[in-house]
Amino acid sequence: MLAEAIHSVADTGNQALLLLEGRLARRDPDDEFQFGYTRARAAGQTRVNRARGRTGTMAA
Q1: How many Cβ atoms sit within 10 Å of the Cβ of residue 25?
Q2: What's the domain range around 34?
């Protein structure tokens, strides 16, 4: 049961990070980023994957 609880917390955290990155990626272009923020989504997915790998390594 403890493992499932940890898994659920990790999944919730992952989804929260992806939601945040999705919102950042929807921002309109500005002077600094003329083509918008669409790469923020890919960067967010990379961060989530790294975090999942670290969490899995620590749990093992």
Answers
A1: 16
A2: 2-59
For the chain, the residue count is: 60
Separation between Cα atoms, residue 27 and residue 23, nearest integer Å: 7
pLDDT at residue 37, as a whole number: 79
Terminal-to-terminal C-alpha distance of the chain: 16
- Per residue in 10-60, pLDDT (tens digit) is 788 888 888 888 888 788 888 888 887 777 777 777 887 887 777 766 665
Crossing angle for the helix pair 39-59 and 2-25, to the nearest 10 degrees: 170
| Token pair belonging to 29 | 């272009």
Domain count, the chain: 1
What is the model's pTM? 0.60
